[in-house]
Amino acid sequence: MSKVHLIDHPMIQHKLTIMRDKETPSSLFRQLLYEISLLMGYEVTRDFPLEDVEVETPLEKATLKRIAGKKVAIVPILRAGLGMVDGLRDLIPVARVGHIGLYRDETTHKPVPYYCKFPKGIEQRMCILTDPMLATGGSAADAIDLVKQHGCLDIRLMCLVAAPEGIAAVQERHPDVDIYVAAIDRELNENCYILPGLGDAGDRIFGTK
Ligand code: PRP
Ligand code: URA
What we know:
The structure is a single chain. By secondary structure, the chain is of the alpha/beta class. It has helices spanning 10-20, 26-44, 85-91, 138-149, 164-173, 201-206; strands at residues 4-6, 50-56, 61-67, 72-78, 96-97, 99-104, 111-117, 126-130, 133-134, 155-158, 161-162, 178-181, 183-184, 187-188, 194-195. Strands 1, 4, 5, 6, 7, 8, 10 and 12 form an 8-stranded mixed β-sheet that branches. Helix 1 (10-20) runs antiparallel to helix 2 and helix 2 (26-44) packs across helix 3 (85-91). Bound molecules: 1-O-pyrophosphono-5-O-phosphono-alpha-D-ribofuranose (PRP) and uracil.
């Protein structure tokens, strides 16, 4: 079974509380999502392997550490996942970025695919899928299917707020994918929105409501 990593550092909890407030404007919401994504990135990359490298400092030669191993692909689930890309990319500047377009049908709450573009050689990379909201888990699980169909089997899912139902659904369909979240909320409402949640993440990022 995959692991769920709850990244509840006080700075992250504080920033997320401001994001949840319905009075928080879109500009601040976006800025905080950027900051939290960068902070979460430290934990998502915590187990990255290191290798020795010889460096000449201004004073002497030294054997030091640098990141070894696989290259990274950051893959946001459109639209809201886009809000988590810049923070991760500032942490991992050499990462390539793919995109998966999915929207949730308003009546069935099932994800509908509309776009998919991955960087070349995705199968050689570790993929960090981003989406702020993990509600029923349908969108994330379908997005993971797509990444796997393109040959990439080293996948991590990074979300901001998750419902227990969403975590269970992803774990059932993808027991090999670790999930990183900043908060696990209480439940879903009758429209499959997360409670207490923060509303519609895409609308709040892009000001579409
Ligand atoms: C939201 C969210 C996830 C999905 C979560 O996207 O960003 O992708 O819903 O729901 P699920 O876990 O029940 O599948 P939405 O479909 O509203 O699209 P948007 O990001 O374009 O607004
Ligand atoms: N999508 C969102 O943006 N918010 C939710 O609470 C559930 C799905």
